[in-house]
Write a structure and sequence with these properties.
The chain has 438 residues and is α/β, with parallel strands linked by helices. It has two domains: 204 residues, Rossmann fold (3-Layer(aba) Sandwich), CATH 3.40.50.720; 140 residues, NAD(P)-binding Rossmann-like Domain (Rossmann fold), CATH 3.40.50. It is 46% helix and 13% strand. Helix 13 packs across helix 14. It binds nicotinamide-adenine-dinucleotide.
């Protein structure tokens, strides 16, 4: 394919050289004449493993050259990859100035060129940036419609500086955010032959994936370092701890606990986080991430209360009460906390949980209910229908099949989904349905 690459920094330079190495015909564009001259001299404008040799090779063969002339590049290509910088503004917001400018330039050149061209944004940008900011700029400058007169896609890159050439040829995944099928086909074709799964998703999803990745990577490093500092203060070798931690592929290094849902609770997680943070504080070890896990969880629970408040309705149903499915354990159940808060705010509440009836509760559980939710007995309903008949708004905190099959599709009470119901994707578009975090 004939490709132009806008921005010859770390991402653009590596993408341009590697795509040329795969056999595409590539023309790099940068506003910086020094970078353009370097590439045309067969030298890399960035320091990266293998990039020097690769650029020398692909410029010698004629597969890669560079220019400062946007119209020339657009005239010689059928697809543009936009790799300009998106730095932070002083207040932390995303600077889109370079993106906007290059999009205007590409649009103006496309208006002259005619013929189908696909603009692919590789820069990291917040969800909504492409469709709400960049597509309107393109449509205005081209004088046409995206997805009809020209293609648009978002293709975030996941290469690590230092090993980016190696990563390009062995990527963890390829993400194609496609405005329309034809635009996605162009991006998929660019990388044909490379290993790794290809995910074709809506444009804003592709934009968000990059943030999920980077936020998680930062969180992982911060978590490991905080845990290391606590272990050190407690005289434990953190690497020995993490060797065992990492060997657990069921609960730790796995997809467990990584899907948005309701707040956590139970008899272990809150208690153990509290004592770990307390031990760190006693040892004068600052652990901002660990000490904000419980406050984050409390805020998440509060979101559910606010969703009920926003409906303006007073008669509330709650499905689920124990801290997780298949148990009657109510200690530190976030659903108990939720019920208690709603009850305290004067909502007319009915609760159903097939595993929980006061007569069956024993020992610690019974005591827990008696101290934390003394009015539970009068709120408990024996059947799903009783709750549905009562409620104007219904919180679903369980995937109990009896509850799922009884939930009305539309009409009836407003459904506040705390568990991501199996048909949530379809329901999201319906009035009378609210997801907690989706
Ligand atoms: N560096 C990384 O490892 C990495 C990884 C993944 C994603 N990203 C994202 O990719 C994007 C680019 O990052 P980078 O590190 O390569 O940035 P960079 O600052 O190294 O390079 C950006 C280049 O764009 C050029 N440029 C600016 N405006 C231009 C225009 N109108 N026309 C042509 N060229 C123009 C600049 O001169 C510069 O050479 C950012 O959004 C970044 O967040 C970076």
């Amino acid at each position: 394919m004939r490709i132009s690459v806008f921005g010859l920094g770390y991402v653009g330079c590596v993408s341009a050289a590697c795509l040329a190495g795969m056999g595409h015909e590539v023309i790099g564009v940068d506003v910086n004449q020094v970078k353009v001259d370097l590439v045309n001299d067969g030298r890399a404008p960035v320091v990266e493993e293998r990039i020097g040799e690769l650029i020398a090779e692909v410029t010698r063969s004629g597969a890669l050259r560079a220019t400062t002339d946007v119209a020339e590049a657009i005239g010689l290509s059928e697809v543009s990859l936009v790799c300009v910088g998106t730095p932070s503004e002083p207040n932390g917001s995303l600077c889109t100035t370079y993106l906007e400018r290059v999009t205007e330039q590409i649009g103006a050149a496309l208006a002259e060129r005619g013929g189908r061209h696909t603009v692919v944004f590789r820069s990291t940008m917040l969800p909504g940036t492409c469709l709400n900011l960049l597509v309107p700029i393109l449509e205005k400058s081209v004088g046409g419609t995206a997805g009809v007169d020209f293609g648009v896609a978002v293709n975030p890159e996941f290469l690590r500086e230092g090993t980016s050439v190696r990563d390009f040829f062995d990527p963890p995944k390829t993400v194609v955010g496609e405005l329309d099928r034809a635009s996605g086909d162009v991006v998929t074709e660019l990388y044909r032959g490379l290993p790794g799964e290809v995910f074709r998703v809506p444009v804003p999803t592709a934009e968000a994936i990059k943030y999920a990745d980077n936020a998680f990577h930062g969180l992982k490093i911060g978590f490991a370092n905080e845990l290391g500092a606590v272990c050190q203060a407690l005289g434990v070798d953190s690497h020995q701890v993490m060797d065992v931690f990492l060997a657990d592929r069921k609960l730790n290094i796995s997809s467990a606990y990584l899907r948005p849902g309701f707040a956590f609770g139970g008899s272990c997680l809150p208690k153990d986080l509290r004592s770990l943070v307390h031990a760190a504080q006693r040892a004068d070890v600052s652990v901002p991430i660990l000490s904000h896990v419980l406050p984050s969880n409390a805020d998440h629970l509060q979101r559910a209360v606010e969703l009920v408040e926003r409906t303006g309705k007073r008669r509330v149903g709650l499905f689920g009460l124990s801290f997780k499915p298949g148990t009657d354990d109510l200690r530190e159940s976030p659903l108990v906390e939720l019920a208690e808060r709603l009850f305290g705010k004067g909502y007319d509440l009915r609760i159903h949980d097939a595993n929980v009836s006061l007569s069956r509760l024993l020992g610690a559980n019974r005591e827990y209910v008696e101290t934390r939710l003394p009015h539970l007995a009068q709120l408990l309903a024996d059947s799903v229908e009783e709750v549905l008949d009562h409620a104007e708004v219904c919180l679903v905190g369980t995937k109990d099949p009896a509850v799922l099959s009884a939930l009305p599709q539309a009409g009836g009470p407003v459904i506040v989904d705390l568990v991501r119901l199996p048909d949530a994707e379809a329901r999201r578009a319906e009035p009378g349905y609210v997801g907690l975090a989706w």
